[in-house]
Amino acid sequence: MKKKYQLSKIIILLLLIFITTSCETISDCIDRIRPELISKELRTGVYDVPYEDNVNFEMIRGNTNDYYISSISIEGKLPPGFNYSVVNNNTINFKGTPIRDGTYEFTISISVSPHTYNEDGTGDLCGNTTSKKYTIKIIDYR
């Protein structure tokens, strides 16, 4: 009786994981194939001096080269004079000439998609979005 009860709990737990994530199959949820933005400290910029730095993502338990950034959003403030773009499918490039000093905090949110899909039209993802906070500090030597 006790083994049957434990097995029921495991099955219910697996079903909850499957239902509460965007997994295509239960095995995807167990494997936890998902994107992750790489943590890094963005370099400090200098007022009125061109700036460039990158943030990359990687796939956890998957081949990063099989996926690309399909959408990106930034919440918070980038330094005035900065823009961002996706390059090489998995790199977010920040570029610009800062026109104001300060510390700028923002959250990057990305969604990824596979370059190819399985025969059933799905990717092997257990969630295709991720977010992480970053900071860029701009100093003024004038």
Automatic annotation (TrEMBL):
<protein>
    <recommendedName>
        <fullName>Lipoprotein</fullName>
    </recommendedName>
</protein>
<dbReference type="InterPro" id="IPR013783">
    <property type="entry name" value="Ig-like_fold"/>
</dbReference>
